């Protein structure tokens, strides 16, 4: 496991990555009340949040941006498996720092994360959504950066500012959206179905039937919520999964391609290179 902690003004950034051959538990507790946003990269690690007598489980974290308030009584537990490595970025600020944030950023928290600024429990879950392609690209770059030392820290600082700006920008757009919450939940269900069936995904018509939403709304609003069309999202998930299989599980390229639903090795290699900027044979294990 690797863990980098970076301080930027009144923000603390935790960049954590872990892979394992056998099931492992990684636990995190904050030493004072914080408001934070967690960004999950590929790996789909399972998260359990425990506080008082309550708990909440997140089973589909890949690509999730989750905001929350937490005090010292809250325990965050990641369950890491061979096929579910951990990639997590947490950008946090202590609640006592909100009024000191530069450029009126404290007002942004109050406006868009009001329930976190004035919490009513040890843990309060704020708005969450699956990252846009721009946000996902930043997270991917952070976990694949080749820099070290001071250059690595400098790179992290620049990317964290951009990532947080994208988060609040997307949150602002969502607050103005006309898509009902019930329909958003159905779209999230569609995303989870695709993520669980990368090798043999359902057709668009079958996916519509499973979530109870007509095909037109599925196509239109899936892109509005997640930033990409349905099957573009499926392609991204397939390639992210293949990357993890090759890098963390030492799987052969041909086998990884088959595992995520590619019949043609050349098509897989070309799509992989287009997304990541290098071919699967160039992955450093």
Account of the protein in words:
With 285 residues, the protein is of the alpha+beta class. The protein folds into three domains: 173 residues, Sandwich (Jelly Rolls), CATH 2.60.120; 51 residues; 47 residues, Orthogonal Bundle (Arc Repressor Mutant, subunit A). Helices cover 44% and strands 24% of the residues. It is built from ten helices and ten strands. It has a six-stranded antiparallel beta sheet with strand order 1-2-9-4-7-10. A hairpin with a 2-residue loop joins strand 1 and strand 2.
Give the secondary structure arrangement, pairings included:
Elements (H helix, E strand, L loop, with lengths): L1 E7 L2 E8 L5 E5 L5 E7 L5 E6 L2 E5 L5 E7 L3 E7 L5 E9 L10 H8 L1 H4 L5 E8 L2 H12 L4 H27 L5 H16 L7 H8 L3 H12 L3 H19 L4 H7 L5 H12 L9
Antiparallel strand pairs: 1-2, 2-9, 3-8, 4-7, 4-9, 5-6, 5-8, 7-10
Helix pairs in contact: 3-4, 5-6, 8-9
Notable characteristics:
single chain; 285 residues; alpha+beta; Jelly Rolls; Arc Repressor Mutant, subunit A; 3 domains; six-stranded antiparallel β-sheet; 10 helices
Question: Could you write a compact summary of the structure shown?
Answer:
With 285 residues, this protein is of the alpha+beta class. The chain has ten helices and ten strands. Helices cover 44% and strands 24% of the residues.
